[in-house]
Fold this sequence. Notes:
Blueprint: H1 2-10, H2 15-31, H3 36-48, H4 55-65, H5 73-80, H6 84-93, H7 99-108, H8 111-118, H9 125-134, H10 137-144, H11 153-163, H12 167-174, H13 181-203, H14 207-228, H15 234-243, H16 249-257, H17 261-272, H18 276-284, H19 291-297, H20 305-318, H21 332-343, H22 351-379
Helix pairs in contact: 1-3, 2-3, 2-4, 4-6, 5-6, 6-8, 7-8, 7-9, 8-10, 9-11, 10-12, 11-13, 13-14, 13-15, 15-17, 16-17, 17-18, 20-21, 21-22
Amino acid sequence: MIVRHFLHWSRTASVAERAEATSALGHAYLETEFIPGERAAAEGALIALLDDPSPSVRAALAQAMARSELTPPTIVHTLAADLPEVAGWMLEHSPLLVDADLVEAVAAGPSDCQLAVAGRAKLSAAVAAAVAEVGSAEACLTLIENPGATVAMFSIDRIVARYGHLVAIRESLLARSDLSVSTHQALVAKLSETLANFAVARDGVGRDQAMRVAKDACERATIVLAAASPRKEIKALVRHLRESGQLTAGLLLRALLCGNVDLLEHSLAELSDVPLARVSALVHDRRGSGFRALYDKAGLPALAYRAFREALETLQEGGFAGSAVEAACLKRRMVERVLTRCADEPCEEVEPLLTLLRRFAMEAAREEARLYCETLVEDGTLPARHVPVRVAA
């Protein structure tokens, strides 16, 4: 009887009145003990409301019934496919939607629907993967900030590939404690690329120059990451660098000139398909007889071999880096020695290598000067030769 009166009344009621009454009926259906006939009539009335022309009324129905397992499946699935302002309630809260329903909503729905799915209190890795693959930037940001979402590392990597250039995405990812070193490096590469494009667009810097500066910055950051990471993670980092085209002779020479032998050894093992233990033995062999064969098998350029050989000899004489800090910065003495030895090469084709080494030498000198000045400031003293001399009037 009550339901019949409701249906008659709703034909002439305003949208606001219908929305309020619909919410009340939905809550009553979930929370009130109806006699069998009345419950069936109430369910029929709720299903009839799915055809209400006003989204506000349908949104009120969704809001009232989204969180309950007692909601009729017809209502759940119909509202989940409605307009975003209606569907969002079901997509974010309904316990009756299974992973297949949610994946379909992410694949076919607009950004607002993807956002609702990404914000669910509990989200499986499969649905998270769908959001990472096709979701909007806003949905991906919601996903990585959702503590109830199970997000596999390959999904994180996919978000980095798609949206790593966006500040909000990048900052949220860097705030996570579960990032692998390879994912961290991918974010660094994205940041370098973004900054280079920004410099070209705003400051009129030539693209080649901007990309070179960005590449150098990315390589420096990669060396720092490798030096600070557990040795067990270096293999995955090297694999990522190779797959992304970043595992170059220039990067490996920089790593060696920083004293980061771990990164060099893992890279040579990856490129040559030689066991790591064997690679390590050849790198540390003072005779150097087998290193050339390893170097060639790794496919590194022949013209750069002299630089690698000289750097290894310098390390063997002075001792390998003993800490992450020592393995993260170019060693000025080593760079200058390698540059001097390679400059003796008569071949004109070695000039690109010399140019690279000169850049390394300038970078090492600047880093040394910066550290020297920081030390002076921290100590609160200045050597006598730096004390200004007062000129008599």
